[in-house]
Amino acid sequence: MTYGKRLVLLAILDSLIVITSIFVSMIIIKTDINVFLTPTLFFSILILLIFHHVCAFIYRLYHRAWAYASVGELIAITKAVSFSILLTVFTQLLFFEETNLRVLGITWMFHILLIGGSRFSWRIFKDHYIKQKVQVKRTLIVGAGSAGTMIARYILNNNDTVMKPIGYVDDDPKKINLDFFGLPMLGKISQIQSIVESNRIEVIIIAIPSLKKTELNIIFKECTKTKARVQIMPKIEDIMTGKVSVSSFRDVQVQDLLGREQVQLEMNLISEKLSGKTVLVTGAGGSIGSEISRQVCEFHPQKILLLGHGENSIYQIDMELRRKHLSEFEIIPIIADIQDRSRIFEVMREHHPDVVYHAAAHKHVPLMEYNPKESIKNNILGTKNVSEAAGFYGVDTFVLVSSDKAVNPTNVMGATKRCAELIIQELNQKYITKYVAVRFGNVLGSRGSVIPLFKKQIEEGGPITVTHPDMTRYFMTIPEASRLVIQAGALARGGEIFVLDMGEPVKIKDLAENLIKLSGYSIEEIGIEYTGIRPGEKMYEELLNENEVSSQQIFPKIHIGKAMLHGQEELKKLISEFNELSSLEVKERLLAISNVSKLRANVERVAVN
Predict the structure, then answer these.
(1) Which residue among 166, 183, 254, 417 has its CA within the 20 to 30 Å range from the CA of 608?
(2) What stretch of H or E contains 359?
(3) What are phi and psi of 529, to 5 degrees?
(4) Cβ of 244: how many Cβ atoms within 10 Å?
């Protein structure tokens, strides 16, 4: 219906209501039929009609969407009717020097009842008739605080959603037996399973923004005992800043269940390090490198260099950043192999970066067991090329993206990462450049990580393959890992190994079970198959070995390890003889270097004690 037609219909309806209200009031107060024929009555009806329409326009009664009427609309109706009656009283006193307050009082009451009833009847019709024609999903809201009630109000007022809120669960004892927006408190979080079954709940929305990860895990475990779909509300800050709407419910993700809170960064310190500077990111097309590039751009560098070997991946991150930041600073994509020493030195000479984030590396543990020489070429020789070029051309800070697998390594990939750390620690003593390494655990969602593999296995109907039921790993998200790398660069003094306090390690078996449940299946439907530990794998990972452990916490949840410089001579010998060695010899020498480093450190520790 057009606005003009809607305005005419509402004006006619209100006019009939005004006339009806006056006549009903006169009948109640005076029974003499002659009173209906007096000029005073007709004049009163006329001025009340005029004043009503004027006040209706002032309080925008003809502009409101009455399908979503609430307390605000009721207040507007009350004000419009009250002022129209008061103006009528003053007009009668002005022209007739008398007024009948009893008649106008009853008229006021009927006026509000009929105007309000006509408007709110459409909302009642919409909520209880139109919505019933759609296949609604009975919804339980976890949390009856401000966020939970906001969601309930949104669903109740929105005819487009297929959800129908049934009630809340909350552990706050003050909320027991209370109703919020007409919805009852059904029980505690521990009673979710029985509440879902007794109320035929199809959707559960978790609406407690202040939840810690461990608390969310507890709620999620209760929800997974049911067959209901589990969703979570967006963050309050995202709603307030307009990034998402209240209706942007999403499924709970594995990242939500990690038992660790995200690290908060020192933004001013990072800004001083990056704003207006030239920043080089190697491996910029990879999972970590691309996220580092995105986050660096938020600090408005003068220039960002996106270096990578893969043409397509560099093209994608280049196009993404250009769409967001093209007019803000210079973005330069560079196709180069870190194994090509002359090319890397050429890049450093041409652009003179202030900060280098070295994320380029081979990271897949089983693949590197089969290809140790390729692992050395990229992770050791490539790192040597980039780090020496950085020192030669006076880069201020060089940050190596390392791994928890560099601690007491039992595999080729971990050993090459430890050797890369040895290289930059030695260079830190040679050049003015501040060299640091950053260690963290497995990254959820990165290429080659376990999550994409599990998701694919679930899509194919299972089973999920897990190496061992007791296998544990530290996990973090890609944004967390990238923030840690950037923060480490800002904290660097030279020679440090930064480590994130990653909380408790996670069992791979538990991760697989959670992912199955999040995908809407039961463990029995998909199944978990144990395949045995693969070559080079550990049952558990460490972030620092006993010789590197330091109690110093340089930043909240970021620790700094002691630099261990043992094994450098053996590493130099390996590099000089690399081309003459077989793959098996390379692998043996790599692991021997790690053992030499560990043995010498133990000897020193015993001697000191």
Answers:
(1) 417
(2) none
(3) -115, 130
(4) 14
Helix %, strand %, coil % of the chain (to 5): 55, 15, 30
What's the rounded Cα separation, in Å, for the pair 58 and 80? 8
CA Rg, the chain, in Å?
A: 35
Return d(Cα 201, Cα 225) in angstroms, integer.
Answer: 13
Q: Please give the Cα distance from 402 to 363 (Å, whole number).
A: 10
Amino acid letter for position 72: G
3-state class (DSSP) for residue 289: helix
E-strand ranges in 411-546 read: 434-439, 442-444, 464-466, 472-473, 475-477, 497-500, 506-507, 528-530
Burial class (CB in 10 A: 0-12, 13-18, 19+), 556: exposed
Q: Which helix (H) or strand (E) holds 164?
A: strand 163-169
Q: Which amino acid belongs to residue 145?
A: G
Cβ atoms of 341 and 575 within 8 Å: the answer is no
58 CB-near residues (< 8 Å, 6+ apart): 80
DSSP labels, 50-72? HHHHHHHHHTTTTTS-GGG--HH
Beta bridge partner(s), residue 142: 169, 206
Q: 303-308 and 397-401 as β-strands: parallel, antiparallel, unpaired?
A: unpaired
Instruction: Specify the 3-state DSSP secondary structure of 353.
Output: coil
Query: Helix (H, G, I), strand (E, B), or coil: what is residue 472?
Result: strand
Q: Determine the Cα angle at 584 with ends 582 and 587, to 5°.
A: 110
Type of residue at 179: D
Highest-pLDDT range among 132-146, 337-351, 360-374, 520-534: 337-351
How would DSSP label each residue in 555-600? ETTEEEEPP--TTHHHHHHHHHTGGGS-HHHHHHHHHHHHHHHHHH
Longest dimension (CA), the chain: 122
How far apart (Å, rounded) are the C-alpha atoms in residues 428 and 64? 69
Domains observed in the chain: 3-130 (no CATH), 134-252 (3.40.50.720), 274-445+492-504+535-604 (3.40.50.720)
Q: Tokens 């996220």 belong to which residue?
A: 291
Report how many helices (DSSP H) and strands (DSSP E) the chain contains, helices first: 23, 22
CA–chain centroid gap for 454, Å, is 21
Average pLDDT, the chain: 79
Instruction: Collapse the DSSP code of 250 into the 3-class scheme (helix H, G, I; strand E, B; otherwise coil) and give the result.
Output: strand
Nearest to 346 by CA among 393, 292, 298: 393
Told to judge if 405 belongs to the known catalytic residues of this protein, a careful annotator would answer: yes
Residues 6+ apart with CB under 8 A from 562: 497, 547, 548, 549, 550
Q: Express each pLDDT in 362-419 by its tens digit.
A: 988 888 889 999 999 999 999 999 999 999 999 999 999 988 787 778 888 888 998 9
Cβ(173)–Cβ(198) under 8 Å? no
- What's the pLDDT score for residue 260? 55
Give the separation between CA 436 and CA 402, rounded to whole angstroms. 10
